[in-house]
Design brief:
About 15% of the residues lie in helices and about 40% in strands. It is mainly β. Strand 1 and strand 2 form a beta hairpin. It is globular, with a radius of gyration of 14 Å.
Length: about 150
């Protein structure tokens, strides 16, 4: 099981998403994030990944953790994903080799072009709730076999 991060930049009623251009999840809209390296804490990994994938510069103190999502594929625990909302950063999102950014209104997110479970948990965190989520996909990751969540405080 890999620890990963995910940041959603929020500006008023808009959310910054990026189209993944290569690798795992390519062809899907998502937030910015990736693997936590052995020498990093979760917040520093989130800030590093954001900079690598968007050229945005953030400070750990500005991250608001809103979820931990445990992703299973056909019963195998693959990812423990720490999800953050971010309202303050420096710079403008730029296209990188891995990601192509685009702002969306909160109520018009392209869920049909995102991971299928995002439509279940992302609206909850956008309502300022903090949650623990368990998602079990089929092996390909295109169907949800089981979805559960509970509210928490981080």
């Amino acid at each position: 099981m890999k620890k990963t991060t995910l940041i959603f930049c929020v500006k008023e009623d808009q959310i910054l998403l990026a189209m993944k251009k290569r690798g795992f999840g390519s062809g899907k809209w998502n937030g910015y994030g990736g693997k936590v390296e052995e020498t990093e804490n979760i917040s520093s990994a989130a800030v590093r990944e954001l900079k690598e994938e968007s050229n945005l510069i953030a400070e750990e103190k500005d991250l608001k953790q809103v979820a931990v999502v445990n992703f299973y594929f056909d019963g195998e625990h693959k990812f423990e994903c720490h999800v953050f909302l971010l309202k303050e950063w420096n710079g403008d999102a730029e296209e990188t080799e891995e990601m192509n950014p685009k702002w969306f209104p909160k109520n018009e997110l392209p869920y049909s072009e995102m991971w299928v479970a995002d439509a279940k948990w992302l609206p909850i965190v956008l309502e300022n709730k903090q949650i623990l989520v368990t998602v079990n996909f089929n092996k390909e990751g295109n169907e949800i076999k089981n979805f559960e969540y509970s509210e928490t405080n981080f």
